[in-house]
Amino acid sequence: MAFITANWNPLGEAFYRKTELYEMCWTLRDGLRDSLVAAAPYGGPIGRNIITPPVAVLSVSVTCLSVFQWKSGPVVQLGWTVSDELLCVQEDGSVLIYDLFGSFKRHFSMGQEVVQSQVLEAKVFHSPYGTGIAIVTGSSRFTLATNIDDLKLRRLPEVPGLQGKPSCWVVLTQDRQTKVLLSNGPELYILDNTSCTAVCPPGLSPQAGSIVHMSVSFSYKYLALFTDTGHLWTGASLYLQDKLSEVDTKKTTTPKQMVWCRRPKSQQPSVVLMWDRLLMVTGDPCVLVGELDGVRIISSVYQELLQEVPLVCQDIFKIASMAPGALLLEAHREYEKSSQKADEYLREIKEQSMLGEAVRQCVEAASHEYDTSTQKSLLRAASFGKCFLTDFNPDVFVSTCRELRVLNAVRESSVGMPLTHTQFKQMTLQVLIDRLVYRQFYQLAIEICHYLKIPDYQGVSRVLKHWASCKQKDLSDESIARAVCVKVGDSPGVSYSHIAAKAYECGRTELAIKLLDFEARAGEQVPLLLKMKRSQLALSKAVESGDTDLVYTVVTYLKNEMNRGDFFMTLRNQPVALSLYRQFCKLQEQDTLKDLYNQDDDHHELANYYVTASYREKRLDTRLSLLQSAVDEYNKAKNEFAAKATEDEMRLLRFQRKLDDEKGAGLLGLSLQATMEALLALGLHKQAEQLYRDFRVPDKRYWWLKLKSLAEKEEWEELEKFSRSKKSPIGYLAFIEVCMKCNNKYEAKKYVSKVTPEQKVKAHLAISDLEGAADAAIERRNDSEMGAVLSRCTTQDGSGPVKPKRPHSVAQKECNKK
Amino acid sequence: MAAHLSYGRVNLNILREAARKELREFLDKCAGSKAIVWDEYLTGPFGLIAQYSLLKEHEVEKMFTLKSGRLPSAEVKNIIFFVRPRLELMDIIAENVFREDKLHSSRDFHILFVPRRSLLCEQRLKEQGVLGSFINIDEYILDLIPYDGDLLSMEYESAFRECYLENDQTSLYHTAKGLMTLQALYGTIPQIYGKGECARHVANMMLRMKREFAGSQNQILPVFDTLLLLDRNVDLLTPLATQLTYEGLIDEIYGISNGYVKLPPEKFAQKKQGEASKDLPTEPKKLQLNSAEELYAEIRDKNFNAVGAALSKKAKIISAAFEERHNAKTVGEIKQFVSQLPHMQAARSSLANHTSIAELIKDITTSEAFFDNLTVEQEFMTGVDTDKVNIYIEDSIAQKDPLIKILRLVCMQSVCNNGLKQKVLDYYKREILQTYGYEHILTLNNLEKVGLLKPQTSSRNNYPTIRKTLKLWMEDANEQNPNDISYVYSGYAPLSIRLTQVLARPGWRSIEEVLKMLPGPHFEERQQLPAGLHKKRKDQYSLGLLFALLLTTQNK
């Protein structure tokens, strides 16, 4: 087993190893010279843009995925997005996006001003928000976009004294903020959204010189700075505190690349520096790719992984190691050879009661190993040791076995994803499946989903969705729709709209519509249908969903798209949409409302519209003409009552205007009742009388009105005259009550004799004549009325001025007798 | 302070907590100090979810009311607009943002749409050229608000108007969404019953939404057994009648909104000794009314005639409790007495408040006008003389009583008579127009459109059949110790309650005839529960959902 440590190199207290991942099979004439190379982390794909001749090459580790002619302008920087798309930042600030297979997806610009000033340098970075781009322009200004899927450009403030590009810079993501750290000669600045702050890394010796290279670790936690005197400073990147180390490399040339090489829970963070022809055995130019737990080195021939040897592997494989794992491995090897030494080794572990630990070590070490035979021997050893344990939880062992099987499958050179176990854990299975899908390894992805028993809507469904989207590039509409439906069926959580959107992107509108029919969520259907200009269909889908906002959205869209006639016709067929649009018009466009009613011959609503409009008018004649229109429409709608009422109103308005002009009465706009009230108050009895007759006001109401008005003005004689004018339609009790309200008992008494027998008692009570009330009640032989009188007696007993003639009992008796 | 929500049979605090959590998450999304600009309509409903203290914890330093013009200045990092998705509000926001930009450039803008974000509104903001100024545009789904321990409300006061008058079913969509949220928290409701067009529509949308979420099956044990959806227009009579419970009367007279009532201050003046009451408070007294208050929970649903007795009983108990102090001899006893003191004092002030309120109400309920009005209502409900012009209504119009009172009575007569004879209807209408003004031709038109007022079309009046079959009128309603729901209206049992009771036992099949007389279809739907949840169901709860009716249908 000694050979395992053969490629280990000690550095400080830790060992580093370089594992060969793949032999590259790209055909290079000039190696990696004269080309831009970018590789995505987590064993991602590699993109290359060769300057002469202009060709772009995309490959995954080994296999070349596509080669295509580069037709656009000069590229400054390449990068990969989180969803495995290639970003090409051009000199003029435009960014082109290609998918893995070299087909163009979309493009966007980093701002207008860049077109002139040109991009000097660009960096692609990843943060919790997604993939971002930072550029520095010819006018020495930085522009940032933290998420290219939700593009918001931020122009950072100016850096004092910066001419051209800075000597070096990096993007940091801390505290949910994205900042730029840059050096300009000896100065070091942090640039955020609002300010530019000069900083000084603690402990950097003053003679160290100016910083010419810097690098930030994968997790943005650590920072390395390289100065022109060959000093290397490392520390925590957060606010640049905490120096970790300072090394004098004795190298004054600027390294070509400098990348952090550390693993989570690493014993010591370290930095890999690369100069031309140094550090690498080959003289070929290489590219370093920082990974979560190491550095990927890509040369024209090999792809290798440089990483710190995990502690557990060190423990097991270190020469003469006595770690429990190492002993267990040895024990198992002896057991295979049928040697009794196996027992000795086992005993030794068991005596220290370290068997559980030994198994755990073997399992963990296996997960870190790249070579399948090493994995196997470690796992076998673990399984062997497990047999001697009674209470060992097998979960970790089982899951490691499963995960390793998956990892080995994706590491296959035909797939070419050199993921380490640590990276896999960090990246999660979901992302792995997505990435397999991007590369169209549908079969493998589905196998993995089944193998790891992932719930359908998280696993298989997603794969199927992608498959269906991709499938559309060939075959006829019908057959695809059917094929997709058969395969995808009702798998929960498959978004048909997503598939349809892809179909539309490929220019297959009909297919997209067919596929959309399978979509259950209307909210997803509608925007796409609108995009495809199937607005009628979109409208009916929106109505079906019941989401009124969606209906409104389609309606406003239709309104801008169609001519008015067609638009109204479309609405007519969708009553729900029509009434919503009416609501909209009521608030926003009154005139359109009128047109709508006109078109529908809805005379009643039209009349109401005119009535409403009349109240917005200040001038009387316009008001009257609007009301006349209302009358016409009410007549057309055969609503005689409303027509008549409107005519009355017009008559009243004219009358009011006339009186206002003559007497300045201020009547306009009052109701009929209020007008009469005002007239009476002004003493214009004749005019009030005229209205009463002209508008056929019921006698009762008019009598009430007049009664109150006269009493209020205390015209008692007039009132008496009025009471005698004819038999009161409201009786005479009302007269008594109104007089009493005006505190005129004297007047009230006048009407007592006139009330009907039924109201006698009430009338007497109203003027507090208990005696009279009692008499009347006795006369009428009415129990409850008697009770009413009695209750009044008790409340006033002793204190009241009037005392009943007879005691209660007598009254009661008499009443009963009768 | 939300303890009253967890007293009921269903812990509604879960819903409230979910709503609060979402609010906190949104606030944290906008890092730094904040000012909230409120759509005033929302402050009431939000008060039921979160108090200012919660907002303050999340760095909300200022609150403004949304109005056009320039935003008040405030030293904050974020300005957040809490608004309903309405176009007119978008225009105001746009104006705010425009005016702002010229002064400061460092404040970040955010919008929180309640209860749902709207493409239409975003489009409007885009047209106004301000959409790009917003860092976050989000929605805060607030459909069903826990109002009390046994009550959820949408606080959507224009729902009736929108559904029946404007044919705008937005509120129904929100209802369906709200019920989906409810089911996400309390489990799928296996049985859905309903009556009416809107109910049907809501049920359809719910079933559709369930299909849309297929795949993510809800594994929560259902708390609710049955959902009953009823259209408001199935039972138009109940909201027209004058409420006679304690809470009902407070609402009739002073109006309860979002759980608060504003009362005339005179009765609540602090009577402190030595300090002459030189200045009476002029601000109306604002009181929160919910079951968290022990006394209120006890009397809120009592018929007002039984409230007096309950209050005096309570008064005796409280004064007896205070008398206890004379019996307290040992230090231990005194200590125990003192420990109960805060509770007793709270009870005493609660009693004082409710006694004052009850006095205020009593002044009104004992008046002749109130009595006459009630008599007429009861005549209508029992079917007396509903087919001719009512003298009391006529007189009330002549006296120019408030229009709302007249409309309530006329509509009630129309509902109880299955429409009014054309002559009677026209007479009322003419009286109203002549007295209250011609503009009410639109009001009346609206009432006719929603069916509250209608001309009699067939000679048959089926209200008496409905009344008899469903026992809507009970002669001997016991107000003190009720044994039937009819006590709430001193005789009238609300139609919707009767429908619910019949549904529970013996089932709607027994009243098919009556259901056919009421408007809209009736239906029954079953929702499949995930396997495994079937057997576990033991408790049976039922949840009824009714739409609130807005009576003010005036339109100018």
TrEMBL record, chain A:
Record region (Disordered): 792-818
A Gene Ontology cellular-component term: HOPS complex
GO BP annotation list: endosomal transport; intracellular protein transport; vacuole fusion, non-autophagic
Coiled coil: none
Any one Pfam family match given in the protein's UniProt record, by short name: Vps16_C
Places the protein is found: Late endosome membrane; Lysosome membrane
Residue stretches making up the Vps16 C-terminal domain: 494-797
Keywords, comma-separated and alphabetical: Endosome, Lysosome, Membrane, Protein transport, Transport
Predominant place of localization: membrane
Molecular function terms from GO: actin binding
Vps16 N-terminal domain ranges (all copies): 5-398
Listed InterPro entries: VPS16, Vps16_C, Vps16_C_sf, Vps16_N
Topology of the protein relative to the lipid bilayer: Peripheral membrane protein
UniProt subunit comment: Core component of at least two putative endosomal tethering complexes, the homotypic fusion and vacuole protein sorting (HOPS) complex and the class C core vacuole/endosome tethering (CORVET) complex. Their common core is composed of the class C Vps proteins VPS11, VPS16, VPS18 and VPS33A, which in HOPS further associates with VPS39 and VPS41 and in CORVET with VPS8 and TGFBRAP1. Interacts with RAB5C. Interacts with STX17, MON1B. Associates with adapter protein complex 3 (AP-3) and clathrin:AP-3 complexes.
Function summary: Plays a role in vesicle-mediated protein trafficking to lysosomal compartments including the endocytic membrane transport and autophagic pathways. Believed to act as a core component of the putative HOPS and CORVET endosomal tethering complexes.
Family: Belongs to the VPS16 family.
Annotated protein name in UniProt: Vacuolar protein sorting-associated protein 16 homolog
Source organism (scientific name): Monopterus albus (Swamp eel)
Lineage summary: Eukaryota, Metazoa, Chordata, Craniata, Vertebrata
UniProtKB/TrEMBL annotation, chain B:
Gene3D superfamilies associated with the record: 1.25.40.850, 3.40.50.1910, 3.40.50.2060, Syntaxin Binding Protein 1, Chain A, domain 2
An annotated GO cellular component: late endosome membrane
Name this protein carries in UniProt: Vacuolar protein sorting-associated protein 33A
Organism: Monopterus albus (Swamp eel)
Compartmental location: Cytoplasmic vesicle, Autophagosome; Cytoplasmic vesicle, Clathrin-coated vesicle; Early endosome; Late endosome membrane
Record's keyword terms, sorted: Cytoplasmic vesicle, Endosome, Lysosome, Membrane, Protein transport, Transport
Family classification: Belongs to the STXBP/unc-18/SEC1 family.
Record bears the keyword Transport: yes
